[in-house]
Amino acid sequence: MLRVYNSLTKQVEGFEPLAPGKVSMYVCGPTVYGLLHIGNGRTFMFWDIARRYFEHRGFTVTYVQNFTDIDDKIINRANEEGLSAAEVAEKYTRAYFEDMDAFGVRRATHYPKATEAVSGMIAHIEGLIAKGMAYAVDGDVYFRVKTFPAYGKLSGRTVEDNAAGASGRVDVDARKEDPTDFALWKAAKPGEPSWESPWGLGRPGWHIECSAMVREILGDTIDVHAGGKDLKFPHHENEIAQSEGLTEKPFVRYWMHTGFLNFETEKMSKSLGNVRTTRDVVSVYGAQAVRYFMLQTKYRSDLDFSDEAIRAAEKGLMSLREQLARLEAEATGSAEGEALAVQVREGFNAAMDNDLGTPEAVAHFYVMADELRRKRNEHDPRPAIAEMRHLADRVLGIDLSAPPEVQTIGLDDKTAQLLAILIDVRKEAKAQKNWALADIIRNRLAELDIRIVDQKDGTTTWEVVSKVPV
Ligand code: AMP
Ligand code: ZN
Predict the structure, then answer these.
(1) CA 28 to ligand 1: nearest atom
(2) Residue 268 beta carbon below 6 angstroms from any ligand 1 atom
(3) Which residue, judged by its Cα, is nearest atom 2 of ligand 1?
(4) Residue whose CA is at the smallest distance from ligand 1 atom 8
(5) pLDDT digits (tens, 9 = 90+) for 208-254
(6) Which of 62, 107, 116, 370 is buried most, with the most CB atoms less than 10 Å from its CB?
């Protein structure tokens, strides 16, 4: 049986959706004011894989991911770029789809936008006010946290912790009854996009967006709500308060969170400035290598981004593809290979059933490749190889088909000398941490089928490849 870790109970639990055979799933989507970094990419890739696995296990999944298309950061970016907030949101929503398509992330069932769901948010806020759980002051509306005693049940943060944090800040809003109260609706400021509401012109707060959209599209209680672990507090805690406060029903059956992608042990984040965009990373290493690198770590653990680790993952993936292609080409066994295919499937499902254990699922492929090799003189390995390729492709978005044959071709002397100059320039760029320049050199050469390889001993070699399908 499929079991998943629930951040709410802090336990691995049997997975039983509310309606048998159906999974409703909501993942907090991006604020569309810039390109995704590869930490965001990790989170969105993983929840797509979870969804694929639910489908593989026979569930019909409704997967909803929102776009936060109105927010301070979008307004600031609009002013910087000389665009309207709507134009900024549209530009980066388009970029989101380009990047996710290139990274192999499947499309969700629904992509609601905050700006198109404002009436539902207003209705939700009115409901909270009617119950005494929210109050309006000068065109703002706040959630009255003290009316929701379960506040903190997801993150373990108490109202008092929160108050201590809030009162330490200089900008505590004097209009709030209590420093822990959070905004549901913000009165319009001059020049900002705004909507009509019972409290005057204004715009919704961030947290209310998810509560209202979940309810509108999926209902009062959903099966899975996911995001990166930084969203547990305050975002998901506030969502629980808003939703359960209004409906008095459990909001989410399984809260699930991904660990961070770190850069030199620090969370990759725009505010720290230590980001590499998904676009850049996927174009430098290829989507397959990056996915494979990420899948080798448990989704709940933090993972360090490193050039070396991605290169190592790429090598591992190439080797697995080569092993399978060789087995397929050289096997002589003729006995029924169906039992081996069953072993592939059962081992893969066992790994994934255990809280979506992608590292074990991938490791199982290597174990099975050894097993096929051992038995290649008796058993036909082809059904097992077909099964591995099918599972890897369908669930993990990994291509295990035979690699193209690579031939190394020589270069004339002058070209080789020019190449040596470029490699020296790239080395200097890397020494100065000018990754962008180093990547341009690598990518432009790759376009000419010249592959630059950084060796472990610090030297850089090159090869000219011609891709000939096997
Ligand atoms: P944001 O646009 O900042 O709300 O982020 C979009 C999604 O990416 C959220 O689910 C975040 O939790 C997640 N996220 C942000 N930074 C990281 C990171 N360094 N590693 C993994 N996930 C992240
Ligand atoms: Zn959310």
Answers:
(1) 10
(2) yes
(3) 30
(4) 40
(5) 999 999 999 999 999 999 999 999 999 999 999 999 999 999 999 99
(6) 62
Question: Of the bound ligands, which one is closest to the alpha carbon of residue 262?
Answer: 1
Q: Is 446 helix (H, G, I), strand (E, B) or coil?
A: helix
Separation of 300 CA from ligand 1 center, angstroms? 13
Quick: pLDDT tens for 360-419. Answer: 999 999 999 999 999 999 999 999 999 999 999 999 999 999 876 655 566 777 787 888
pLDDT at 169: 46
User: Residues near 259 by Cβ (< 8 Å), separated by ≥ 6?
Assistant: 228, 229, 297, 298, 299, 300, 301, 302, 303
Q: How many residues does the chain have?
A: 470
**Sign of torsion, CA 88 89 95 99?**
positive
Using N-to-C axis directions, what is the helix angle for 358-374 and 338-353, rounded to 10°? 160
Say how many Å lie between the CA of residue 235 and the centre of ligand 2.
6
Note the pLDDT of residue 382.
95
- How do strand 60-65 and strand 22-27 relate by DSSP bridges? parallel
> Could you tell me the distance, in angstroms and rounded to a whole number, from the CA of residue 321 to the centre of ligand 1?
31
| Residue 330 in this model has a pLDDT that exceeds 60 | yes
Calpha distance 172→151 (Å, rounded): 20
Residue 210 Cα to ligand 2 midpoint, Å, equals 5
- 22 Cα: distance to centroid of ligand 1 (angstroms): 27
- Are the C-beta atoms of 163 and 221 separated by less than 8 Å? no
Instruction: Give the torsion through C-alpha atoms of 23, 288, 261, 308, to 10 deg.
Output: 160
pLDDT of 164 over the 60 cut:
no
The string of DSSP codes covering 102-153 is: HHTPPPPSB--BGGG-HHHHHHHHHHHHHTTSEEEETTEEEE-GGG-TTTTT
- Whether ligand 1 lies within 6 angstroms of the CB of 31 is answered as yes
Tokens describing residue 40: 């965001």
Measured by CA distance, the residue closest to atom 9 of ligand 1 is: 228
- pLDDT exceeds cutoff 70 at 162: no
Pocket test residue of 28, 32, 37, 43 for ligand 1, highest count of atoms within 8 A of CB = 43
Closest CA to 108 of 168, 160, 67: 67
pLDDT at 470 over 50: no
Ligand 1 and 276: CB distance under 6 A = no
Give 453's contacts (C-beta < 8 A, 6+ positions apart): 460, 461, 462, 463
Q: Is 11 exposed, middle or buried (0-12, 13-18, 19+ CB in 10 A)?
A: exposed
pLDDT tens digits along 278-310: 999 999 999 999 999 999 999 999 999 999 999
Is the confidence at residue 463, as pLDDT, over 90? no
- Report whether residue 297 contacts ligand 1, using a CB cutoff of 6 Å: no
